[in-house]
Design goal:
With 240 residues, this protein is an alpha/beta fold. The protein has a single domain, classed as Rossmann fold (3-Layer(aba) Sandwich), CATH 3.40.50. The chain is built from 9 helices and 10 strands. Strands 6-7-8-3-9-10 form a 6-stranded mixed sheet, with helices on both faces. Strand 9 and strand 10 form a beta hairpin. The protein is globular.
Length: 240
């Protein structure tokens, strides 16, 4: 489904943020993307969306080469849940936000409303339908942002720090939602306990390169490996 072939990128044209990246994510996989600040996690997501274009190498999504003329088709396949929901929810109400993308892609108003109601019901968020975005809690807004993305029925979901600043109850709701989604998922996070609970595979980035790629529990239980790359064991694995 997703393939990076020898991809390199630099913001200043000199210092590589992603360097000769070789990566394949198969259909249906849930992959955690971890690493210290500046490791290249968010850059990889922006490259996958075509918000940034690689200086070298090629990116494929569902067999399509990521290039300017293919971007509209590729972006229909990908849903992106931003770290800051305020940057994603820009319409007055949750309903209007969810409708916006569907109508923009040419769906009829009647079909779009059915799709919105279906997704809200699946997530147990019917109560938020007509709520104003500036009047709901951070956790509710995060769930509404996820609902907005799911309404578009993407084949791939990207999530950037989906549990940041959530209280325990809302964090649990987000984790439960992630685990229930059948789509291919790439989740970038410092919340290693959440990654451990939701992902089968983990990619550890360091200075724009893959330092480790494999079974989630195996990598996240390797304290020496994590410490080498300025990270710590998940809290559930730390000895009290």
């Amino acid at each position: 489904m997703i393939e990076f072939q020898n991809v390199s990128f630099s913001y200043d044209g000199k210092t590589p943020v992603v360097e000769q990246l070789e990566l394949v994510i198969k259909t249906g996989e849930t992959v955690g993307l971890i690493g210290a600040n500046g490791a290249g996690k968010s850059t990889i997501m922006k490259l996958l969306l075509g918000l940034l274009l690689p200086a070298e190498g090629k990116i494929f999504v569902d067999g399509l080469l990521l290039e300017q003329k293919q971007l509209p088709t590729i972006r229909k396949k990908i849903g992106y849940v931003l770290q800051d929901s305020d940057n994603q929810m820009f319409m007055p109400t949750v309903f209007e936000d969810m409708m916006f993308g569907l109508l923009n892609y040419g769906m009829s108003k009647e079909d779009a409303e059915v799709q919105v109601d279906t997704v809200l019901q699946q997530l147990g968020l019917e109560r938020l339908k007509y709520r104003h975005n500036h009047k709901i809690s951070g956790g509710e807004k995060r769930m509404a942002a996820i609902a907005t993305v799911l309404a578009m029925q993407p084949e791939v979901i990207l999530m950037d720090e989906p549990t940041t600043a959530l209280d325990p109850c809302n964090r649990r709701t987000v984790i439960r939602t992630i685990k229930s989604l059948p789509q291919t998922k790439l989740i970038a996070s410092h919340d290693l306990d959440m990654i451990l609970e939701t992902c089968d595979r983990v990619i550890l980035l360091s200075q724009g390169q893959i330092a480790a790629d494999g079974d989630c529990r195996t990598i996240l239980s390797d304290g020496e490996l994590l410490e080498k790359h300025r990270m710590e064991l998940p809290l559930c694995m730390q000895k009290i």
